[in-house]
Amino acid sequence: MRYSPGSLVIVVSPSEAECERFLDRAFADEKGAVLSPRRIRTLIAGRVPDEMLDEKGAELRVAAALKRLEAGESTVVATEGLTAEERKVLLRTATGLRRPRHMILLDVGRDDLDEEQRDALNALRTALDIGELGKEGFQTAMRLGGAAVGELKRIVFRSPPKDD
User: Fold this and answer.
1) Which InterPro entries would you find in this protein's record (predicted)?
2) For residue range 48-61, what is the model confidence (pLDDT) as tens digits?
3) What's the total number of domains in the chain?
4) Residue 142's domain is classified under what CATH number?
5) In the predicted model, is pLDDT for residue 6 greater than 90?
């Protein structure tokens, strides 16, 4: 799969472990562009008190993403939750900079979720299915679940080939 260079791709999943596996595999050629909660926590562990790790990690992830977007670099951000609030700042900045904006929803089985996560995931699925994520600022949105998650082998940021 190919996205334009300079794009913002937001990966949303209720399962952090599933999301990390997907990011490691699908964005293997673009590791520098990927900003995930686990990677940021690993970078700041030991420098920040443990009780502030999640809060500082979230702040750093957003700050790094904004810096990459302003520099015109491709950026992949994995969110910690399913709410639009988490995506709003990034989408607003990417829209202002006229960067392409995409979302990938990794759909996991219902058995792995608590009631609150299940409700949030159902609301996000519905918004994606009826095309409401465009109102948030996304230009494309894709839902991957089941075998489709494993079938998507690689995502790259490259311009389309030119027709000669």
Assistant:
1) P-loop_NTPase (IPR027417)
2) 898 998 889 989 99
3) 1
4) 3.40.50.300
5) yes
Cα–Cα distance for residue pair 104/12, rounded to 1 Å: 6
pLDDT at residue 164, as a whole number: 60
The secondary structure of the chain as a DSSP string is -EE-TT-EEEEE-S-HHHHHHHHHHHTGGGGGGEE-HHHHHHHHBTTB-GGGHHHHHHHHHHHHHHHHHHTT--EEEE-SSS-HHHHHHHHHHHHHTT--EEEEEEE--GGGS-HHHHHHHHHHHHHHHTTTHHHHT-SEEEEEETHHHHH----EE-PPPPP-
Question: Within 10 Å of residue 102's Cβ, how many Cβ atoms?
Answer: 21
More confident residue, 76 or 16: 76
164 within a domain of the structure (yes/no): no
The arithmetic mean of pLDDT across residues 60-67, rounded, is 93
**Is the separation of the CB atoms in 104 and 144 below 8 Å?**
yes
The half-sphere exposure of 53 on its side-chain side, counting CA atoms within 13 A, is 14
Instruction: For 125, list phi and psi in degrees, rounded to 5.
Output: -60, -45
Q: Which amino acid is at 73?
A: E
Q: In the predicted model, what is the mean pLDDT of the chain?
A: 91
Kindly calculate the radius of gyration of the chain based on its CA atoms and give it in whole angstroms.
Answer: 16
